[in-house]
Structure formats: structure tokens, C-alpha cells
Write a structure and sequence with these properties.
Strand order of the largest sheet: 1-4
Order of helices and strands: HEHHEEHHE
Mean pLDDT: 86
Structural class: alpha+beta
Number of strands: 4
Low-confidence stretches: 225-233
Largest sheet: 2 strands, antiparallel
């Protein structure tokens, strides 16, 4: 049931109906060694590639444009007009006719409305600048925490491997003793249970490693890559 629920959640994230049939190919065993990571370079990449920061920078630029627009209200407004054509008393006009106009208007006093708009625009720019800096620090923290999580998960994986190896050896010894009549069925069932528990811990540890690596890639702004080689969708 849990596997079915998670498959439905995966479909929803990909924009598919929850009941779409999935055939997921297990990944290769590429967790033999902890991958090398450069936290400083990852932080720099996150500040460049994370879409949240790009969006925040765009909002800051828009706030700057708002200030320029508010400042433009202090200058004169210039309007130009022009027309050209032909006019005459006859049906086919032959006399050229044209006009050119230029108008200039300048607001002397508007009840300090321009000052308020300019102040609001400057406050918005300051707010967007603060939000950008806060987001930048937050993303750097995410990269730092993701690196620590990868390290922790691989250390837990090494411990799980040792636990599994110990459980397998215990089963081998107790099974040999059981075959020679030196151990009971309860002893054998006990070590088999321990082995099953160690195998479950091993699976969870490998899943935690892959989750930590995916979180690391997301935190530094790296694309997860295409899913076509590993994921087949069976739907109409």
C-alpha cells in the first residue's frame, strides 16, 4: 500500500493521474563510495542557477523600474502631433494640407502625490533587496545542510553494511550449529529475524543516501537529468 501511495504521489508531481501505471527500473549500485563535493562551488552555483534567486532578481529589477517611473513624473510631459493630407473644394483635392503640434505640460503641485509614489517605490526596492539577500543566505544554508546530510547518510550506510554483514555471518554460524544439533530452532529463527531487520535497515539507508543526493543536487541548482532511461510510463 505504501508503494502504491508513493507511486501515486510521483504521478501527481509529474502532472499525471495518480492511477497511471509505472514501471520503475531499480538504479544501479552506485553507492559504493561517497561522491566528492565542493560546498563553496555548490553555493556559488546555487546563487546562479536556482530559479528562486533569478525570480527575486527580476522582482528587484522591476522595483528599480518603478523608481525610475516615479521619478519621471517630476519632469515635463511632452506631446507631439502631426497630420498631412490634401484638401480642396473639388472632388479630387489638389491643395496639400498639413499641421504639426507640440505640447508641453508640467505639474507644479499635486498634493505631494509624486513624493508618496516615489517613496513607495523606494521602499519596495529596499524590501525586494532585503528579500533577495535573505533568500541568498537561505539557499546557501540549504546547500550546507544538504552536504552534511549526504555525509551523514553515507556514514549510516556504512554502518548498515557492517550490521548486515554481521547478521549474515551470525546466520551462517547458527545454521551450522543447528545442522549439528548444537542450536535450537528458536536460535535459528532469532538470527533470521535479525538478518531480516538488518536487510530492512540496509534498504532504508540506501534510500536515505539517494534522497540526500537528490536534495544536494536540488540545493545547488543542478538538474536531476532525464528520466527516460530509468522510468517507463504505461498510460494512454
Amino acid at each position: 500500500n505504501l508503494a502504491a501511495v508513493l507511486a501515486g504521489a510521483l504521478n501527481t508531481v509529474m502532472g499525471l493521474p495518480a492511477d497511471t501505471a509505472l514501471s520503475i527500473v531499480p538504479p544501479e549500485n552506485d553507492l559504493a563510495a561517497e561522491p566528492a563535493r565542493d560546498v563553496t562551488a555548490a553555493m556559488a552555483r546555487a546563487e546562479t542557477d536556482r530559479p528562486e534567486l533569478r525570480s527575486a532578481r527580476d522582482r528587484l529589477k522591476a522595483a528599480g523600474a518603478g523608481i525610475r517611473e516615479a521619478k519621471s513624473a517630476y519632469g515635463p510631459a511632452v506631446a507631439a502631433s502631426g497630420s498631412a493630407g490634401w484638401r480642396d473644394d473639388d472632388f479630387f483635392p489638389t491643395d496639400p494640407d498639413w499641421s504639426v503640434g507640440l505640447g508641453i505640460s508640467w505639474t507644479v503641485f499635486d498634493g505631494f502625490a509624486r513624493d508618496r509614489r516615489l517613496g513607495q517605490a523606494r521602499a519596495e526596492e529596499s524590501r525586494q533587496q532585503a528579500l533577495l539577500e535573505q533568500l541568498r543566505l537561505q539557499l546557501r544554508q540549504e546547500v550546507w545542510q544538504a552536504d552534511l546530510k549526504v555525509k551523514e547518510s553515507f556514514e549510516a550506510l556504512r554502518s548498515a553494511e557492517a550490521l548486515l554483514a554481521d547478521a549474515e555471518e551470525s546466520l551462517r554460524l547458527v545454521q551450522a550449529r543447528y545442522e549439528n544439533g548444537a542450536a535450537t530452532a528458536s536460535d535459528l529463527l532469532g538470527v533470521q529475524t535479525s538478518l531480516a531487520r538488518a536487510e530492512a535497515i540496509m534498504v532504508e539507508s540506501r534510500m536515505d543516501c539517494r534522497t540526500a543526493l537528490a536534495t544536494w543536487d536540488r540545493a545547488r541548482g543542478a538538474a536531476l537529468g532525464p528520466i527516460e532511461p530509468d522510468l517507463k510510463l504505461d498510460h494512454d
